[in-house]
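Reopening this ticket.

The earlier resolution said the output was attached, but the attachment link was broken on my side. Pasting everything inline this time so it's all in one place.
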Amino acid sequence: MLNELRELVRVKVNLFTPSKKPVGRASARDGRPRRVYDAPHTARLARRVSPDMAT
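Inline output:
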């Protein structure tokens, strides 16, 4: 029973937790480099939006 619950929690975390991906670098006001990220997406939303991940 605990293994079944663990599997359900894993699926929820993987599909519904938003994540950001780095898309480049930019300079901060003081000249130091910083990372630029895309908007947070869930795996479920990314799958619907991205044409190369269709199925």
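Reporter confirms the inline version is readable. Strands lie at 22-27, 33-37. Helices lie at 2-16, 43-49.
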